[in-house]
């Protein structure tokens, strides 16, 4: 039997809100989910399991969105090179470069004829091409000297 959760959904919501209130006072310090887990006195893996629990998922998702939003705002307002922020968004928040491909022209489709529509001599040519008779094959394997 599993241990009961440390927090009720309402308690975890209040503690998450308290964490972000504290972090918002430190404008340049990024919020992190690992730090949030530690503030909740949870391991990060336990914190992630709360995401799967009924009643908790919306609070955990909202916390994750707040962290992502902090990084997006930092990207938009920072005078620093954006490479580190972009790296974080791609690797921790699931963002990705979007590549667009534009196709012009036409694609022509050709279909193989059905075997029923082939003439007898065409069918025989196909059969002989796939036969095991290898009399007319030239061996090009190099000989050892």
Tell me the distance between the termini.
Answer: 74 Å
What is the residue-mean pLDDT, rounded to a whole number?
85
Q: Could you say which overall geometry the principal axes of the C-alpha atoms support?
A: elongated
Task: Determine the fraction of residues in helical runs and give it as a percent range.
Answer: 40-55%
Number of strands: 0
Sheet with the most strands?
none
Q: Structural class of the secondary structure composition?
A: mainly alpha
- Rg over C-alpha atoms, rounded to the nearest angstrom: 32 Å
Q: Count of DSSP helices?
A: 6
Give an account of the 3D structure:
By secondary structure, the chain is mostly helical. The chain is 50% helix and 0% strand. It is built from six helices and no strands. α4 packs antiparallel against α5.
Question: Which features does this protein show?
Answer:
145 residues; mainly alpha; 6 helices; 50% helix
Offer a quick outline of the entry.
By secondary structure, the chain is mostly helical.
